C-alpha cells in the first residue's frame, strides 16, 4: 500500500477534521457585561428559588457596593423541572436537590428565615423571628404555595400509598409517586389525572405525566388492562389554543378518556375515589392510581400584603400585582415580582424566569443609575411537553398565545421529536444551572 | 433560548459534564488533535495502511457514539420522529466515526513510529 505526500491544502483539510473537536474549548466563558454601577442601595430579595438566586447573582455582578440580602428558610435548592423525570423513574430524588448556599455569591447576605410581614409603605419586611429589614428595592420571588388542604381528605403523608401520587410536592414525593405509578402500570386498573382550576406552575406537567404513565403501560404490555382518565378543569387541556388542539389529538390517539369542567375537591383514599365539582354538581370518579395536583396560591405573607392583586380574577390566589411587561408594581415602583409569584397571565416556569430576570435587572439597574430600563417581558414560556420516554414537543409561546420557537424551521414545536427530548434530558438542567449562576 | 452566545454554550456544557470532566474532554480532544497534527508534520505523508485501519474503525466509532447518546438519554431508534432527528442521529454517528478514525490513525502513528522504520520491517 502506497503513501501519498501532503501538499499544504490537504494538510490543512486533514488538520481541520481534528481541530473541530477542540474548537468549542476556544470560546471564552467570560460574561462581557457593562461596567458595574456604583451604589449603596439596599436590595432585599424574598426567596432563593430559581428567580431569586439568578437575580442575586446577576445584580451582584452588575452593582458595585449594593447591599443585597436574600431571605429564604430552606437549605435545599430544588430543580423543579426535574420532578417529572424523578416521578418517571428516570432520575433519583437527589437529581433535583442541591444546596442553596452553593449557588449564592459571597457578597450576598443570606438570612435563612422566612418573611412574616411585608410593609411596602414603610419599605420594610419583618422576618419570622421578628427581625425588621429595611430596603430601597424589594424583589418578591417567593414562588408558589401548594394548597393540599384545599382538597378535602388529602394530605402529603398519603402520597405513595393506596395508588396516590403527586408529582409537584417535592423530590421525595416525586420518587414516591414513581413507586405508585410503577406498581399501577404492572397491575392495571384506572389511572386518574387531574389539574387544578387555579394558576399553576408548568401547566404542561399534568399532561406529561399522563403520557408517561401510558408509555410505561405500553412498554410493560399492560396497556390493555389500564384505563386512563384525564379530568380537565375547564373546556381545554392547555390554555394555548393551538397547543390544546394538538394535545387533544394526541390524547385521542393514545386512547385517553377525557372529561372537561371537572375540578377536584376531595379524595377518599379508603374507597379510592376522587370528588369533582362540575357544572352539573358533584361527581365521583374511582381510581387505582391518581396524580393529585393541588390548587396553587401565593404564600399568605404575599397574599395578605398590600402588594397582591386587590381586584380581578386573582384576588383569591394572591399573586403580586405587577405590570406584565416590566414586572414592576404599579403603586410601589421600587417593588418587583419575578417567577411563579408574579401576577402575570403566563410564565410560571423556569424558562420564563430565564426571560424575566434580565428584564428586572435592566429596569432595576437603570433606576439606580437614574435612568429608565428598556427591556420588556413578552410572556415567554417554554414547556418541553414529554409525550413518551424518548420524545417531546418543544412548545414555546407568549402572552398572545403565539408560538415562539427557539429554532424555527429546525425544531418543529408541535411535533413529537427525539431532539426535543434530548434538550429536556440533557440541556435543560445545565441551562438552568447556568441561569442560577447568572451566566445564561 | 434567549441569547445563545459562545460563553453561554460553554457555561451550559460545563454544567452538563461538570467543569472538571468538560475541560478534561476539551483537553483530550486538543491533545489528540495536536498529536494527529504532530504525526502528519513528522511523517510528511499519510500512510495508506494506517488510514485503512482508521477507516475500518469508523463504523465502530459511529455505533459507539450513537449508543452512548442513547444510553445517556434513555432513548432508542424508535424515538426518531422527524427530519431533524435523523440529521442529529446521523451527525452523532459521523462525529463518532471521524473521532475514531483520527484516534486510531494517531495511535498507530505514535506506536509504530515514523514511516521509514515501518517500510524497513
UniProtKB/TrEMBL annotation, chain A:
Residue ranges occupied by any FAD/NAD(P)-binding domain in the UniProt entry: 42-154
UniProt GO molecular function: FAD binding; sulfide:quinone oxidoreductase activity
Keyword match Signal: yes
Tagged with keyword Signal: yes
Keywords (A to Z) from UniProt: Signal
Gene3D superfamilies in alphabetical order: FAD/NAD(P)-binding domain (3.50.50.60)
GO biological process entries: sulfide oxidation, using sulfide:quinone oxidoreductase
Signal sequence annotation: 1-34
The protein's name: NAD(P)/FAD-dependent oxidoreductase
Species the sequence originates in: Roseibium aggregatum
From TrEMBL, chain B:
Domain of life of the source: Bacteria
Regions that span the bilayer: 20-39, 51-74, 86-107
InterPro entries (UniProt xref): DUF5368 (IPR035308)
Alphabetized UniProt keyword annotations: Membrane, Transmembrane, Transmembrane helix
Listed name of the protein: DUF5368 domain-containing protein
Organism (species): Roseibium aggregatum
Classification of source organism: Bacteria, Pseudomonadati, Pseudomonadota, Alphaproteobacteria, Hyphomicrobiales
Amino acid at each position: 500500500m502506497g503513501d501519498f505526500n501532503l501538499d499544504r491544502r490537504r494538510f490543512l483539510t486533514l488538520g481541520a477534521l481534528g481541530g473541530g473537536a477542540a474548537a468549542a474549548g476556544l470560546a471564552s466563558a467570560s460574561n462581557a457585561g457593562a461596567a458595574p454601577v456604583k451604589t449603596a442601595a439596599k436590595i432585599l430579595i424574598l426567596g432563593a428559588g430559581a428567580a431569586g438566586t439568578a437575580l442575586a447573582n446577576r445584580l451582584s455582578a452588575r452593582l458595585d457596593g449594593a447591599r443585597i440580602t436574600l431571605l429564604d428558610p430552606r437549605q435545599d435548592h430544588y430543580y423543579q423541572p426535574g420532578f417529572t423525570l424523578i416521578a418517571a423513574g428516570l432520575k433519583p430524588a437527589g437529581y433535583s436537590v442541591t444546596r442553596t448556599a452553593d449557588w449564592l455569591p459571597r457578597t450576598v447576605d443570606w438570612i435563612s428565615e422566612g418573611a412574616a410581614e411585608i410593609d411596602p409603605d414603610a419599605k420594610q419586611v419583618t422576618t419570622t423571628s421578628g427581625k425588621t429589614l429595611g430596603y430601597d428595592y424589594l424583589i418578591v420571588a417567593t414562588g408558589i404555595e401548594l394548597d393540599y388542604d384545599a382538597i378535602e381528605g388529602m394530605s402529603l403523608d398519603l402520597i405513595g400509598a393506596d395508588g396516590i401520587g403527586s408529582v409537584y410536592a417535592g423530590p421525595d414525593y416525586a420518587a414516591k409517586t414513581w413507586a405508585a405509578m410503577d406498581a399501577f402500570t404492572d397491575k392495571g386498573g384506572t389511572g386518574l389525572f387531574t389539574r387544578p382550576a387555579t394558576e399553576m406552575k408548568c401547566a404542561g406537567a399534568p399532561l406529561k405525566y399522563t403520557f408517561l404513565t401510558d408509555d410505561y403501560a405500553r412498554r410493560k404490555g399492560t396497556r390493555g388492562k389500564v384505563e386512563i382518565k384525564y379530568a380537565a378543569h375547564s373546556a381545554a387541556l392547555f390554555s394555548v389554543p393551538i397547543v390544546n388542539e394538538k394535545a387533544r389529538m394526541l390524547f385521542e390517539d393514545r386512547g385517553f378518556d377525557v372529561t372537561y369542567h371537572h375540578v377536584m375537591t376531595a379524595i377518599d383514599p379508603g374507597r379510592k375515589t376522587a370528588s369533582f365539582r362540575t357544572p352539573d354538581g358533584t361527581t365521583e370518579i374511582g381510581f387505582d392510581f391518581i396524580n393529585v395536583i393541588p390548587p396553587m396560591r401565593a404564600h399568605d405573607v404575599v397574599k395578605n400584603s398590600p402588594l397582591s392583586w386587590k381586584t380581578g380574577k386573582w384576588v383569591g390566589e394572591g399573586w403580586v400585582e405587577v405590570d406584565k411587561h416590566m414586572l414592576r408594581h404599579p403603586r410601589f415602583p421600587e417593588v418587583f415580582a419575578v417567577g411563579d409569584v408574579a401576577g402575570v397571565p403566563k410564565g410560571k416556569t423556569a424558562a420564563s424566569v430565564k426571560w424575566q430576570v434580565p428584564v428586572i435587572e435592566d429596569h432595576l439597574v437603570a433606576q439606580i443609575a437614574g435612568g429608565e430600563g428598556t427591556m420588556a417581558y413578552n410572556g415567554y414560556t417554554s414547556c418541553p411537553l414529554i409525550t413518551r420516554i424518548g420524545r417531546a414537543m418543544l412548545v414555546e409561546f407568549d402572552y398572545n398565545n403565539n408560538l415562539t420557537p427557539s429554532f424555527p424551521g429546525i425544531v418543529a414545536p408541535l411535533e413529537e421529536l427525539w431532539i426535543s427530548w434530548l434538550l429536556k434530558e440533557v440541556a435543560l438542567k445545565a441551562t438552568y444551572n447556568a441561569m442560577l449562576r447568572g451566566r445564561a | 433560548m434567549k441569547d445563545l452566545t459562545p460563553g453561554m454554550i460553554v457555561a451550559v456544557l460545563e454544567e452538563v459534564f461538570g467543569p472538571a470532566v468538560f475541560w478534561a474532554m476539551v483537553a483530550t480532544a486538543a491533545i489528540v488533535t495536536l498529536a494527529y497534527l504532530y504525526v502528519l508534520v513528522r511523517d510528511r505523508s499519510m500512510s495508506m495502511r494506517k488510514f485503512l485501519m482508521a477507516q475500518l474503525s469508523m463504523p465502530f466509532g459511529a455505533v459507539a457514539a450513537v449508543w452512548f447518546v442513547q444510553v445517556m438519554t434513555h432513548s432508542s431508534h424508535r424515538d426518531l420522529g422527524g427530519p431533524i432527528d435523523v440529521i442529529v442521529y446521523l451527525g452523532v454517528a459521523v462525529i463518532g466515526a471521524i473521532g475514531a478514525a483520527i484516534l486510531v490513525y494517531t495511535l498507530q502513528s505514535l506506536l509504530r513510529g515514523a514511516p521509514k522504520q515501518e517500510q524497513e520491517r
